[in-house]
Batch of 2 targets.
Target 1
Amino acid sequence: MHRRHDLDWLRVIAFGLLVLYHVGMYYVSWDWHVKSPAASITLEPLMLLTSPWRMSLLFLISGVATAFMLERRPDGLLRRRSRQLLLPLLFGMAVIVPPQAYYQVVEQLPGGYNESYWAFYGKYLSGYHGFCDSDGCLRLPTWNHLWFLPYLWAYTVLAWLLWRLLPATALQRLRQWAGTALHGWGALLVPVLVLAAARLLLVNRFEQTHALVDDWYNHAQYASVFLIGFLAAFSTGFWESLQRLRWQSLALAGLGYAALIHVWYFSGYNDAQPAPLELRLALRVVWAVDQWCAIAALLGFAYRWRNADSPLLRYLTLAVFPLYILHQSVIVVLAHKLKPLQLEPGIEALILIIATFALCLTAYALIRRCAPLRPLFGLPAMAAQPARPAASPVSD
């Protein structure tokens, strides 16, 4: 069983886009931990270019990875994945994430906050819930951007239970059924129907909290694409269908994106004059089309590079997990520290992007050489690290 280098590249690209997205969050009108004085709606259409599909793509790739790992080395998988996902989560909540919450309180708390970071940190560890504004109280401690880790762990447990409890023949039949359903145009239609149903039925009923226990719309979309990846991982027909339909997928995603942006930013509808209910429902379907067809296009175009290995890819494949853990705290701290300089937003954003990548990659260069730090950032122990992973499309 060979490694899927196309999925490695897509995973690297998706995490790179995540850095750009979180820098963008500093400059748009949407709520975030710190905000630029120049924040406006200007960048929001560009941000929405990746919003519908970026995290779903990562969950789908993780579903494929889980299938590969269960096929290659099933014994102890749940223990290994728990260590790889939950240990960095706990470390991140204790060490990496607190500066985000601190600067959020400093910038957004009514009346300001003038105590030191260490005074705040004591309250953070104690579970203090007294930092409140008109939108509610900040819940501490928090995992903020690390929400991906507990969600991925939960879905991994689900896949492990399917593998553990179902007879091998039943799981094989389930995969064969998925391969049949996801063949040809079914590779586009079936996931779109699933995601459209989730959005129509749940998005208006459940706020997207990233809190795991009450986030039912996000579970409906992310668990669905994870299971698609898990069940279709070995289906050649699925991957070849996506390759054949890559241009059609790209066109559908582009049309869906254009429709969303037109209605939300150029049609005149707003909070004071909302779009009619029929149009809002139609846009939920359009969102699902954009969401899955963008993923399908990326998978289809990348499939031809499934055997394209390189030293750079091997380096970045391991680097993206520490970069993911570190990047948002780096962005928040840098943005807050740069604010007094009153830089032109374009220059400031460029500095934030370059500095974030540079600092995170420098940190990775140190982390990978430090045995005690490696497991805290999701890297295998030095003694256990193979020369080259053999099968799993992703290592986290």
Target 2
Amino acid sequence: MSLSAPSPTRKKVRVEQLRPGMFVLELCGAWLDHPFWRTSFLLKDQADLERLRQSPVREVWIDIARGLDVAPEAPAPARGDAAPPPPVKPVRTVPEKVPLEEEIGRARKICMRACREVGGLFQQARMGQALRTAPVVELVEDITASVLRSPSALVSLARLKTKDDYTYLHSVSVCALMVSLGRQLGLPEPELREVGLAGLLHDLGKAAIPLEILNKPGRLTDEEFALVKEHPRAGHAMLSDAGVTSDSALDVCLHHHERIDGRGYPDGLAGEAISLHARMGAVCDVYDAITSDRPYKAGWHPAEAIRRMAQWTKEGHFDERVFQAFVKCIGIYPTGSLVKLQSGRLAVVLEQRESSLLTPRVKVFFSTRSNLHIPPEEIDLASSLVRDRIVSQENPEDWGFRHLDELWAGPPARPA
């Protein structure tokens, strides 16, 4: 039965008549035309209202039993009275960019909630239960908003996952990386959310792999690796059975392990036969995997990961254009990287400068000349007043730094 069936509590109204507090029951128009993943929801704030008004959707169905009714029209002015001024057309609300330090707290909360929601989805898949995708789909909007406010915060926090929560936070990290990469590639906002959803769901098929294989500390046997390589098809089947209709989510789930040179799996696709979204997924998936601690190896540091991936791109693993865009959004020295400055000081990278990848904002904390810690100080290497520059990337283990991430992310969150 259609949601738009006649009912005394349902009304079809123009988007100009909407106001916060109304319950939107159905959006009239194609799914990709509107800026929301949900088709029914309580219109809570002005920001959502402006996004809807700026979309191609012109009419919606509301339910006045679950929200506000249309405001009564003002009476026509009496003869001789001045007509009221025309309403000012609202300006679309876009998340305002904020420094990494300001976004860290919000990003940490998103990571914790996302880990629970994605963990629940994987558990449903392992138990053969019907997948409830609505909660994780709603996460995409929060993750997208966080990335648009501060590209580095959530991406960098999700990298700090433990071995125990790797599977779940890997999905969250790839979601954020896909949004950030899509933004760099100039994808429109609705498509950013679509690739974000694809990133969040891309590895669901690993729920079909026995945990003793996923968490095995040693090298996999040929038989075990063959089983792991089935996870793209398993995930695609799970999403299809759950009624997921996003072409991007289905495609990235199935093809994020394909390679440009045709040596990937499961279908051995090559070059242009691999969609843009799947090529994006391949880059984001590998970057997060190699920078994360796993049961069988410690993660590489971000700058080292970028260097290795650049070599793999030359060897035919990744799409070169997509990888170059990825480097621009992550940076040559990603957040959390340890670098040595010309002055002899060591610093941790805080945030990228899109205009210059070689001059990020950093926090110096150690002098290699005196071999002593110094008071932490933030420096913007792009400033004309700063004469220092990066001369090398460093390995924190070589210097014995065990708590480097606390310099940019703050102390680890304590359980409530």
